[in-house]
Amino acid sequence: MQWKYITDLAQIGDIQKETGFSLIFKHSTRCSVSMMAKRRFEMDWEAIPEDTSLYFLDLISYRAISAQIAETFQVHHESPQILLIKDGECVLDASHSDISAEEVAEVINN
What we know:
Blueprint: E1 4-5, H1 10-17, E2 21-27, H2 32-44, E3 53-58, H3 63-72, E4 81-86, E5 89-95, H4 101-109
Parallel strand pairs: 1-3, 2-3
Antiparallel strand pairs: 2-4, 4-5
């Protein structure tokens, strides 16, 4: 699996229009907790169905996009944070040590 990098505000609207599941990982490049959460997530992401789009946001470089994600999907901003989107709605969000590829896979498969 590979990350699709979010670098433009328009991508948020595109993600919202996708059918099925998409995941957004909001990552702080300045935070060791975020680095650890990302590493742990990537070690286990093979549990997630391959047809799930995985998006990555460097929220230090793209703060405005991070704010738009929080507003669009009606979640409180956290870092690190994952948002699982299904048909334009956030069905799971988690941050810090609660970030789990296994939990994402469980939600998608149920």
